[in-house]
Amino acid sequence: MAVIETRNLTKSYGKARGIIDLNLTVNEGEFFGFIGPNGAGKSTTIRTLLGLIYPTAGEASIFGKDIVRQKTEILADVGYMPSEATFYNGMKVGQVIALSAKMRKVDCSDEAKKLCERLALDTEKRVEELSLGNRKKVSIVCALQHKPRLCILDEPTSGLDPLMQKAFFDILRERHGEGSTIFLSSHVLSEIQKNCSRAAIIKEGRLVALDSVENLSKTNAKRVTLHGVNAVPEELGAKSVEAGTDDVSFLYSGDIKKLLNTVQQLPIHDMTIVEPDLEEIFMHYYERGGEAK
Fold first, then answer.
1. Half-sphere exposure in the Cβ direction for 121 (13 Å, CA)
2. Are 41 and 204 in contact (CB under 8 A)?
3. Sheet containing 181-186: which strands, arranged edge to edge?
4. Predicted structure pTM score
5. What is the pLDDT of residues 86-100, one digit of tens each?
6. Which domains can be identified in the chain, with CATH numbers?
C-alpha cells in the first residue's frame, strides 16, 4: 500500500523555485530517505504534503486520502517534525508537550514521559531558555508521543549532539520495527545510508533519482586531501581538484593501493580520506542539466 503518493506535484512561488512535477511513492512500513542540499525543495514538498501550503498543480495523497480535501483526517495519523522548532514563550516544556497531545485529543502522557527520559529532556524548563538541541528534543516528543502511523521528519538532527542523535535514531528504528512508516528528509547522506532502505534525491525542485539506498550509494569515489603539496599527479586521474597553497583535495575512484604507492613519493605531512559530500554524490547520478542518468 502506498502511504505517500504524488502525481506531478508542483508548488511555485512566482519567479522563485519550489517543486516541479514531483512523482513519488512511499510504501507502508518503509524507512524512506528524502535527500537534497538546503534549498532543493525538501521542506516545500513536506509542507505541501501536510497541507501547510497549497499545491500550484498536480495532486498527492497520504493513506489514500487527498492532501487538500482530507487534510484533517490525514494529520490525525501523522507525526511531523519541522526543520525549525518554535514554541510559545512563557510555557514550560511539559506544558508544550501536553498541549500538543490535547490538540490531538489523546492521552500521550506515558509515552511522552518515556521519550523525555530517553532524550534527557527537562520538562520544567521554559521553552525560551532552551538551546537549539533541546528545542529539537521537544519537537521530537511532540511528533512521536502519539505513535503515528507516518512520521515525517524534516532535517531532524540539526542541533542534536552525537549521543542524542543516536538516541533519536534508536527510537525511530523501534517505531519502524513496530510498523510505522518513516519519511526522513536530510542533507546528511550518512543518516540516509545507515537507516533507510530506499531514497529519493531532489535537486532544484525536481526529482533526479529514486532507488534503493544500496544502488544510490554504488560509487567507490572518495574525497582525498593531501597536506604538503598543491598538485595531484596525473596518473591518479583525479577529479574535482581543489588546490590551496599547501594542500590539495580531489575525488579519487581508482585502486587504493595505487593511491598509497603514489602519495608515498610525495612530500606530504598528512592525508585524509573521507566519503564524498552529497553534492559530489549527485555527480554520479545525473548530467549537468539535472536529468537522471
1. 34
2. yes
3. 78-81, 150-154, 181-186, 31-35, 198-203, 206-212
4. 0.80
5. 899 999 999 999 999
6. 2-216 (3.40.50.300), 222-275 (no CATH)
